[in-house]
Amino acid sequence: MKNKQLHRRDFLGNLSKAGLLGTIGFGLAPAAKAGGLLRQEEPLTEGNHVFTTKPYLQCPTPTSMTIMWMTAKPCYSWVEYGEKGQRDKKAHHLTNGMVEAYERLNKIRLEGLTPGTTYSYQVKSKEITEFQPYKLTYGETIESDVLTFTTPASNPKEVSWLVLNDIHDRPASFAPLVALNKGEHFDYLFLNGDMFDYQTDEQQIVDHLLTPLGDTFSSTTPFIFVRGNHETRGKFRMHLHEYFDTPEHRNYFQYTWGPVHFTVLDTGEDKEDTAPVYAGIVDFDNYRSQQAEWLKQVVKSPAFRNARFRVVMMHIPHYHSGDWHGPMDCRKKFGPIFEQAKIDLLISGHTHKFGVHEAQTDHSYPIVIGGGPKDGNRTLIKVKADQKELNLQMLKDDGSEVGKLNFRSKR
Fold first, then answer.
1. H/E run at residue 211
2. 269 with 277: CB under 8 angstroms?
């Protein structure tokens, strides 16, 4: 069978064409069924065999990296990768002894990597035109450009990350906000909630998040996502997590990168669970209680206790965000643990009012709140920490500085 090389110009053109597939539907079969889209047993017969997103990097560690991408048609997909410009290794995704195939959303974890090393990689997807119990027929294979990523060092002396929040279905915001970094190195970008107004379908995730990030950086530098309260809304809300990979494969998690231990919380909704708009299908009070019990164990861990800096990332700040139920429940359940554990910094969004709130009587650590989503109120937060100090700068979308922090490690 002919192997179809996909060059950059063709790749970008195919992404545009892929928008036409929105009326057909693509993605994981359960998501398609839930959204009233294409059924799994109905192979696509319209449109081209193309990538519908560029590869994007998730869940980086010194010895592993997840590569994700999407195709318009069901495929068998794999990654070819290697060091020093070579692509002499191959990885695909196994589940219970079976190679995952006849999928459109691909999530392949590369394991056993060397820390602090640059890898070349290329993703490939071979169309499956027929999948019967005893007969599988392949079509053509498409290939991405050859791309690179670098694994974190095993014990890096510093870490730098960018933070965006409250984009609210404005995909044109990503490129100019990231451009405020002016080409400086960053290890990853953290999306701190409310990238969307609510969850409609898979095409929204592609058009409003994965495509603009892919056009900007995410094929070579990873991003980490935590949802905000708006991502808990809409008919596609249950499937959003399928498009990301996180350190603990859930919506709240922890990880350490160099001198910083990160605790990531999923703050849920901002109103009472009984609010009529939720129609009885949420239970965030219990969910936040569950996270509080988990948090009590996290702050006892050697990774947390030995970190030079202890940083919490969560969408809804528990102070400086009014007295709605969600912030107050976070304050009640998380606040005392933060104080007892002596965290150093909390970064949030949600209020659409950017600000740096220094340590005070209510909270003994600074709380930084990013702005958004309208022009003139959007922000990029830049953070860099080494063994001795942490520096934070918040830039408004016109490039002006609207907040700054600098403090030394207490440990």
1. helix 211-216
2. no
- Write down the mean pLDDT value for the chain: 91
The answer to whether residues 164 and 191 touch, using CB atoms and an 8 Å cutoff, is yes
- State which amino acid sits at residue 138: Y
Q: Where are the alpha helices (DSSP H) in 264-354?
A: 284-298, 302-306, 325-341
Q: Does residue 376 share a domain with residue 328? A: yes
Q: Which CATH number characterizes residue 179's domain? A: 3.60.21.10
d(CA 89, CA 334): 44
Residues whose CB falls within 8 Å of the CB of residue 308, separated by 6 or more in sequence, listed in order: 259, 260, 385, 387, 388, 409, 411
* pLDDT score for 47: 78
In tens, the pLDDT along 192-210 reads 999 999 999 999 999 999 9
* 379-385 β-sheet, strand order: 223-226, 188-192, 159-164, 379-385, 389-396, 401-408
Residue in the structure block whose two tokens are 């057909």:
24
What's residue 24's pLDDT? 30
Count CB neighbours of 328 within 10 A.
15
Residue 27: enclosing H or E segment and its boundaries? Answer: none
SS3 307: coil
With a cut of 70, which residues of the chain have pLDDT below it? 1-46
Dihedral of CA 237/239/245/246: which sign? Answer: positive
Termini Cα distance of the chain? 61
pLDDT at 2: 40
- How many independent structural domains does the chain possess? 2
- Looking at residue 289, its pLDDT comes to 98
Domain that holds residue 77: 3-150
What percentage of the chain carries pLDDT values higher than 70? 89
**For tokens 């990531």, what's the residue?**
264
HSE (side-chain half, CA atoms, 13 Å) at 235: 11
